[in-house]
Design brief:
Helices cover 5% and strands 62% of the residues. The chain is mainly beta. It has one domain: Beta Barrel (Lipocalin), CATH 2.40.128. The strands form two sheets. It has a ten-stranded antiparallel beta barrel. Strands 1-2 form a two-stranded antiparallel ribbon. Strand 7 and strand 8 form a beta hairpin. It is globular, with a radius of gyration of 16 Å.
């Protein structure tokens, strides 16, 4: 067992991603169980359905992430998010790369446009549901993210607020 610190996410644009700064004590987490839950995330995750984009019901967003096995002490991943208008006209495709720290306490991501985001573990409950929170910049305004991973159920939920608009993405593991 290890005691983790709830951390305030750190946002840095176009620079090395620094380690988040601990701000308050969180409950103890079984580090072996945490690592086991993150290891279950290896594979491909896709949104179950499209989400209305930025409060515009005619626009939809879909996303896909591929989490790779532990390599050099981190879990690398890549993703792509697509925005379409009227369900068929492509408006934007944003690629992203990232890392889950080897201790599984934080995620970092960098978008193709260079925006960097950091998420830190806030909780692992008795059912091994993991909750991460973080922030980052975007062209549409600040991004606040809460990620809830239920790896045993092959379910991942991102609640993302961008420029005052909240979107909920539900992912399922496909491989």
């Amino acid at each position: 067992m290890a005691t983790i610190q709830a951390e305030e996410p750190t946002v840095v644009v176009n620079a090395e991603m620094p380690a988040p700064v601990p701000t308050e004590m969180a409950r103890s987490v079984d580090m072996e169980a945490l690592a086991g839950e993150i290891a279950k995330c290896v594979g491909t995750w896709k949104t179950d359905h499209s989400v209305a984009a930025f409060g515009m019901p005619c626009c939809s967003i879909t996303a896909k992430y591929v989490f790779n096995p532990l390599k050099d002490g981190v879990y690398p991943y890549e993703g792509v998010t697509k925005v379409k208008c009227c369900g068929c006209c492509p408006m934007m495709t944003e690629k992203q790369t990232g890392l889950v720290s080897g201790d599984c306490l934080s995620f970092t991501a960098t978008t193709a446009s260079g925006d960097q985001h950091a998420l830190t573990l806030q909780d692992m409950d008795a059912s091994k549901k993991l909750t991460y929170k973080g922030t980052g910049p975007s062209a549409q305004g600040p991004v606040d993210t809460t990620t809830v991973i239920e790896a045993g159920a092959d379910r991942w939920t991102d609640t993302v607020t961008v420029g005052g608009h909240t979107m909920v993405f539900v992912f399922s593991k496909t491989t």
